[in-house]
Amino acid sequence: MKRFLNFYGLLIIFALMQNSVMAQTTEKFPAKYDPTNVGNKVGNRFVESAHVLYGKSIAYSEVCTWYGALKFAELSGNTAMKDKLVAKYQPFYAEDKKLIPLYDNVDHSVFGALILELYMQTKEEKYLNKGKVFAYNQWAVPAGMKLTDTVSNYVKLGHSWQTRLWIDDMYMITMLQVQAYRATGNPVYINRAAKEMVFYLDELQQKNGLFYHAPDVPFYWGRGNGWMAAGMTELLKSLPLSNPERPAILKGYQTMMKSLLKYQSANGMWGQLIDDSNSWAESSSTGMFAYAMITGVKNGWLKDPKYLLSAKNGWTALVDQIDAKGDVMNVCEGTNKKNDKQYYLDRKRNTGDLHGQAPVLWCAFAWLEKDNIPVNAK
């Protein structure tokens, strides 16, 4: 009997410990910061907004926002929002068909990730077939295209012909291939993404865990690092524990997250240039880093309680940047690489820019996701 009681007592203690962990990540926020309230506000703002173009086709920033809104609608149970988001795509089969991007660069190709999310939520084959075309063409060199010697070497090593070693790529390439894996279960896609990620980690991550914008641009641009953080996060969420590249990717992710703790400001935000305390507080990077940390805590990749605190501080600071309309303030405008520190510091601060709207929705759905900590998480 005594042995039974001791065993029963251990079960109670274990259950309390589990509940304590769950409470850490499912804790309620005040109404202003409640993920469902914020997600509804920003998601509805997106539903009502006009398309944003990148050249003559849909901008990647809209794709990322649309994806975030769909995931939020799914996890929050907002079927009305989901229906509107699906309906928003239907003109692409008619009058808006001309707005569909080509498969000619990373910023255009990520459009396929949106189509694949539509498939996963509706199970309509038309989305799957089109999305797979984007994923296929990210690795298949277009007929007649002459590649530079550098890119030709990348392709010979098994990398995408769209490889250019800008940190932005590690969301655009990774997200498309991960979505194709999620939609089909075909390991070819996730293996591609993992190999590509390790290549970028080797080439661009510095000893402090942060990333140069490109090999010839030695600055820690906030949103660029945000793309890398979000890309690693999406990849780790779906990458099998048995994948040989996983340890290197997890290490790169954890090293980055540890460094970000050091550079988060007292108000919860990160700067336009992460390591420059005099640079202005920037919203899109703050949202991307918060998303990476929320997800890392929920999946057991980040065990120290300071990461959850950092994520909460980043989230509340980000929500404070949302105006009455649902537009995010202090968002860095679209930015190419340039070996000039002042160039980054002088970038325009936009309000309502979808580069900033997207990570708000990512964070909102991340808070709503269930904890998913495997027994053998490292």
From TrEMBL:
SUPFAM superfamilies: Six-hairpin glycosidases
Keyword set includes Nucleotidyltransferase: no
Signal peptide: 1-23
InterPro entries: 6-hairpin_glycosidase_sf, 6hp_glycosidase-like_sf, Glyco_hydro_88, PolySaccharide_Degr_Enz
Record GO terms (molecular function): hydrolase activity
Highest taxon listed in the record's lineage: Bacteria
TM annotation in the entry: none
Pfam family, one: Glyco_hydro_88
GO biological process entries: carbohydrate metabolic process
Keywords recorded for this protein, A-Z: Hydrolase, Signal
Protein name (database record): Glycosyl hydrolase
